[in-house]
Write a structure and sequence with these properties.
The complex is a heterodimer of chains A (113) and B (115).
Chain A: E1 4-7, E2 10-13, E3 19-25, E4 39-44, E5 51-55, E6 59-60, E7 68-73, E8 76-81, E9 91-96, E10 103-104, E11 108-112
Parallel strand pairs in A: 2-11
Antiparallel strand pairs in A: 1-3, 3-8, 4-5, 4-9, 5-6, 7-8, 9-10, 9-11
Chain B: E1 3-6, E2 10-12, E3 18-25, E4 34-39, E5 45-51, E6 58-60, E7 68-73, E8 78-83, E9 92-98, E10 104-105, E11 109-113
Parallel strand pairs in B: 2-11
Antiparallel strand pairs in B: 1-3, 3-8, 4-5, 4-9, 5-6, 7-8, 9-10, 9-11
The chains are: A mainly beta (113), B mainly beta (115).
Chain lengths: 113, 115
């Protein structure tokens, strides 16, 4: 199974700051056939279901604010949230869907400083 | 609009089984796999498996092969997951998810295993 390693595990921020969450996979998620990276990012607020933010490493899901930016390729990926707002406080997970079984990172908790 | 409506929370005794449901609406049920995901309290997410509603074909995470059984009822656009021989380790929230991979999620079903 592909292991997904996220860092940091938690992050304390002030509103308006820019934050970066990292995700590293134990194998490349880049398909040689179509040059796409099969990496997604999810946001989960307390008591809610996960919500898809980013897929194929950098494509924002419909309706997701453009302050959420996914980047990276191969084995190293980043979710950047620019100008964090109070509503962004949540847990964030990366997930690979390059091969079965799909696997998730351990999560990053974004908290208020 | 796509909606995945899951069954209510369940309290079950150790050793028993429980069958969870996930009713899909707002899209053609047979067009997309339904995946099931486990989240233990305060923990990350684990993929259990998927079912192809069109063919009934299933693919399980090796870890859950003897624990979970996935089925569908195309007549009611409902997917089911039965969990067997429950222990305290199975206490968790279980989600169904699907449509373009994992784009839509049900609200989750909390399963508590306790005597």
């Amino acid at each position: 199974d592909i292991v997904m390693t996220q860092s940091p595990s938690s992050l304390a921020v002030s509103a308006g700051e820019t934050v970066t969450i990292n995700c590293k996979s134990s194998q490349s998620l880049l398909s040689s056939g179509n040059q796409k990276n099969y990496l997604a990012w999810y946001q989960q607020k307390p008591g809610q279901s996960p919500k898809l933010l980013i897929y194929l490493a950098s494509t924002r899901e419909s309706g997701v604010p453009d302050r959420f930016i996914g980047s990276g390729s191969g084995t190293d990926f980043t979710l950047t949230i620019s100008s964090v707002q109070a509503e962004d406080l949540a847990d964030y997970y990366c997930q690979q869907h390059y091969s079965y079984p799909p696997t998730f990172g351990a999560g990053t908790k974004l908290e208020l400083k | 609009q796509v909606n995945l409506l899951q069954s209510r929370a369940a309290l079950v005794k150790p050793g028993a089984s429980v069958k969870l449901s996930c009713k899909a609406s707002g899209y053609t049920f047979t067009d997309y796999y339904i995946h099931w995901v486990k989240q233990s309290h305060g923990k990350s997410l684990e993929w259990i498996g998927y079912i192809n509603p069109n063919s009934g074909y299933t693919n399980y995470n090796e870890k859950f092969k003897s624990k979970a059984t996935l089925t569908v009822d195309k007549s009611t656009n409902t997917a089911y997951m039965e969990l067997s021989r429950l222990t305290s380790e199975d206490s968790a929230t279980y989600y169904c998810t699907g449509v373009r991979g994992f784009a839509y999620w049900g609200q989750g079903t909390l399963v508590t295993v306790s005597s």
